[in-house]
Specification:
This protein has helices at about 1-15, 35-60, 65-125, 130-150, and strands at about 150-155, 165-170, 180-185, 190, 195-200, 200-205. It is elongated and about 130 Å long. Among the domains are: about 65-150, GrpE nucleotide exchange factor, coiled-coil domain (Hemagglutinin Ectodomain, Chain B); about 155-205, Nucleotide Exchange Factor Grpe, Chain A, domain 2. Helix 3 packs antiparallel against helix 4. Helices cover about 60% and strands about 15% of the residues. It has about 210 residues and is α+β, with helices and mostly antiparallel strands.
Length: about 210
């Protein structure tokens, strides 16, 4: 009787082991869900960490209001810099015009001195030839001062009428060979470099 009970206990205890590896079998017992619960727990922890890191990254990014304020500040700074640049360039242009005008005036003052001397000489002398020679010298000096400032006269006499350089003030019949040409100059024209400073007023033949 005792041996039978012992054998029955050995049989029952052997049912709790796996015959292949010698470890207890979890089939049919509560320990069968332990591995699944551990895997689910690990996955939940990983999801929580990922969500936490995403919240931290979002917290580091500037808000829309901060971005707008930043661009508004940049715009105001750029506008102020451009306004200062515009005022500075305008002031520099005005200074350049003023200094350029004073330079031209200085070059004309010596010619003005010669004109005063010529007028004073004409009042004291009756030598017409000498006075005329003096006038020519003053004129030449004046023309030389203009050439130094890159001012040249427009060549118009007997040239084909060119509206880019000439301004017709009258037309006269001058024969077939003078048709369309400048037959007289009413007022000389001048160039400042490659730019027309004053158009030549001319009479055109037809």
């Amino acid at each position: 009787m005792t041996e039978k009970k012992v054998k029955d206990q050995e049989v029952k205890s052997s049912e709790g082991f796996n015959e292949t590896d010698g470890y207890p079998s979890c089939e049919g017992t509560p320990c069968a869900n332990v591995a699944d619960e551990e895997a689910q727990f690990t996955a939940n922890v990983a999801d929580d960490e990922a969500e936490s890191s995403s919240h931290e990254g979002a917290a580091q990014e500037p808000s829309q209001e901060e971005i707008i304020a930043l661009w508004q500040d940049k715009y105001m700074r750029l506008q102020a810099e451009f306004d200062n640049y515009r005022k500075r360039t305008l002031r520099e242009k005005m200074d350049l015009v003023a200094s350029g005008g004073s330079d031209v005036i200085k070059s004309m003052l010596s010619v003005l001195d010669d004109m005063y001397r010529a007028v004073a000489a004409s009042e004291k002398s009756d030598d017409i030839a000498a006075l005329r020679e003096g006038e020519k010298l003053v004129l030449q000096k004046f023309e030389e001062a203009l050439r130094q400032k890159n001012v040249t006269e427009i060549d118009a006499q007997d040239k084909e009428f060119d509206p880019d350089f000439h301004e017709a003030v009258a037309r006269f019949a001058a024969g077939e060979d003078k048709k369309g040409k400048v037959i007289d100059i009413v007022q000389r024209g001048y160039m400042l470099g490659d730019k027309v400073l004053r158009y030549a007023k001319v009479v055109v033949g037809e």
